[in-house]
Amino acid sequence: MATTHPGWPDADARRYRREGYWRGMTFGALSRQWAVSWPRRTALVDSDRRWTYAELDAAADRLGVALRQWGIRGGDRVVVQLPNCAEFVLLWFALQRIGGVPVHTMPGHRKTEIGHVLRSSGAVAYVVADRHGRFDYRELAAEVLGDLADCLTSPRVVVVGDTGHHADFVAFDDLLRDSSSSAEIADEPVDSGDLALLLLSGGTTGLPKLVPRTHDDYLYNAAASADVAALDGDSVYLAVLPIGFNFTFACPGALGTLCRGGTVVLARDASPQTAFELIAREGVTITALSPPLVPHWLEEFRTSLPELGSWRVLQVGGARLPDEVARDAASVMGVTVQQVFGMAEGLLNMTRLDDPVRLVTTTQGRPISPADEVMVVDEAGRPVLDGQVGELLTRGPYTVRGYYRAEEHNRTAFTADGFYRTGDLVRLLPSGHLVVVGRCKDQINRGGEKFAAVEVEEHLAAYPGVKAAALVGVSDDLAERAVAFLVCSGPPPSARELARFLADRGLAAYKAPDRVVAVAHLPMTAVGKVDKKSLARSVSD
What are the backbone angles phi and psi of residue 102, rounded to the nearest 5°? Predict the structure, then answer.
């Protein structure tokens, strides 16, 4: 694995082990440990299906036998594109048991992204659902495999559900049924520093890059964030966002909950109606959303007034949550809001559950680890003063030192001394909390005056009747124009009306949009961020 991605320098690795950040534990061994510690506790709930920790461990064993008999070996990559279903979790731990490497993808990914991931990972297998959200993933798999015909070895396809007319595909249930029930599995000899999984970078432009995570660093990621979220054996985590999303899986998500002996409940969709029913039925204590979902949950809560006495914490991450929405979420739904700002590459920031309201509603948290190193620098790479805007650079015990099979890109994405260039524009407060201002590439340049789109978007969202807003820079022959895409409950405001509104709120005139486009909804990327690339194309085509 050493040739596919840079690891941590030996001195740093020794320090992280010596100081207890890395425990030397693999996920295959860890799930066995859970089964011994909490055999009868409920680990996983999917609709009317339930697994105790002992049953989860046994299922991972049985599926591990099936995968090994099917030809999966240690180090083999398996692309997993599943909705929120128990099979994702069972498959994940089965692969860890035999040394396989799950590659997380999103249900919203399509031919371009999946083909790229299959090629760049060198996957030997591709696991999909039959259908989800009116989309047939079997047809997607067939189309992608057709495009991979030039590869020496095409990945085999496993379908959770009915394989349909695809004779070459293997049904997940048949894979289990055909395995030798009497076979015993011996854990693959895996080192805690080995590759455990591949995540996808969460950028909104270009094809995703593969993010290599080891057993050591990813376990620390999940366990440390579980401590900040105060998870314990009584915690019940509701997975609403896609389970393959790093935020949902390990920040602390499903993995962090299991590390503390809690229960993971899977929601098949992100609607507040589905979620509120599950929260009430299963006694959910914590869940996580992306910012665009929060207003919909607020609206449904105000309408239905559900009794959700168990629910204590709402995590929000993936993008900046407007300050006013954060305040409304806490006061209306009666929960503690915990802002989470992180990345598949590593660094994770969280507000603390006892932080003052001012910090919870206006910042995106502070690093979860005392070993996290952060710098905020200007365009020349020089540190800026606290409170000034700059690009966030970071390194630490769970922040990777390079992407998978991307040697050329790594030269620019990481500094010579191992800091990851996040591309995020932030302000660092004296308290250590970060305020996310935008992205280095999510800026609009008005005649030399540059500003972050997210700054204006928060003001646009405060205009009466505006339910959601995105500001996008669109280039023409002479300059860059700012286009405001608005979801409105009534007639949209004109650009002139918005300019007056923004001026009254104290914004410089050059930050006002040149054009307003009313849309029914804002398109999202597969990881729940506003797809600004798509919006820009819609006005430039």
Answer: -70, 140
